[in-house]
Amino acid sequence: MNSNTETAPTFSRNVADLPGPKGLPIFGNQLQMRGSQWHVTLAGHIRQFGPIFRLEAFGIPIVVVSDRAAVGNLLRERPEGFERSGGLRTRMNELKVGGVFTAEGDDWRKQRKMVTGGLSVDVIRNFFPTMGFMTERMLNRWKAALAEGKPIDLRRDLKALALDIIVGISMGYDLDVVNDDSNPLQHDLDNLMRRLASRGTSLYPYWRRFKLPADRVADKSANDVEQTVLEFIKSTRERMKQQPQVREKPSNMLEAMIAASEDPDSDFTDQELISNAISSVVGGVDTTANTIGWMINLLAQNPAAAASLAAEVDEVLGDARLSRDWDQMKQFPYLDAAHNETQRLRSATPFLGLISKADSVIVDTFVPKGMVIFVPTNCGDGMDEAHFPQHQLFQPERWISEQKLHKDDDPSRKVFPFGGGPRLCPGRFLALVEIKVVVSMIMRNFDLEFDTRAPPVTQVMNFFMSPSAVPVRLKLRA
Hints:
This protein is an alpha+beta fold. 46% of the residues lie in helices and 11% in strands. Strands 2-3-8-5-4 form a 5-stranded mixed beta sheet, with helices on both faces. Strands 1-7-6 form a 3-stranded mixed beta sheet, with no helix packed on it. Strands 9-12 form a two-stranded antiparallel sheet. The model is unreliable at 402-408 (pLDDT under 50).
């Protein structure tokens, strides 16, 4: 894709030649890219203007690329050809959400190796019994609430469970946020996400000159999260002094990063240790909890799909109330399909923002170095009738075929919920296992009843895209 090859690729147009929505004087399209619904507006533009078009913000052009082949190439060429926006990286780092998320080049390679090692298949398999224990704790909480006639806040509880799991696997601590409604960490993370979303689309970084009350709250939450992580690090270091063998065989990501930061031959710094510890928590909560929340919403509104999934879960789990067998993770094809369909309709990360590091040609268009590029994770195909007939419907069956599909017809090649290429989300496998364990537990033990009297569930962009609510009642199955 890059033009700095032996034979430069040809092109027939420049960015200025691309179509796009009409903007306002001076502002351009900037105001359309703000608020909790901006991703919905952008998706509408994709349907209207096609696989590549332009936006403007204060006269600065932005290219939106949804062509599937081009998106695949863009993701494969990270980090050499494309990287995150420098402005976004700075704003994330200001709220202490950095580490591998914001690193580029050699720093990214070094940090990613450490993070992926801490979230490897072996580590997740070893943690699997603990994940089951934490999921059973949630099951018991819900059973007790139903027995006492108390309401269940699924949105809150799913985030609490995701927080327990990510802190458990990445840092080796059991917070039991599921049963601790007063734990401040979940509240602090919510504050961070809301402010990060607001600052990410802000016209001007005003908070560097003066702070609004919401900025002061977010800054305090960022400091509180950092202090919590520093306590984890301090306790883990003290334990590792007493158990030096842990340095040779670390059992979680935090232990591995501490061992690396204390190795005189390693250039892994304490600040990178802290940043990645925070980022693992931030990245591992909302994405997974939001995906499960959307899936529960969609299943509750589609009883036939819910019944099909419940039948599969019953067959796999038998008399067990939740999965205890690692090998069962390969035995949920319908659950996999329901997850894929959820990501198609309601991806937790619907768009990625990139910067071109060199002159490039994308979809027959010359894109100069330094251009801001937005990439949808479903490539626009996810809501395209030609690729997904009756695309507005939740139909997990569309992901299941008894015949081997040609790769161009394979639905899994039309959406990129975890990104792609070298910067594929390092927590992808953990998220998939967690989704299977939690959703199979829910479907094995409960019937889902959607609250038709509740306000419509809307998409809310708080850095990650979440449902405004999960108005689903759980009813114990026989």
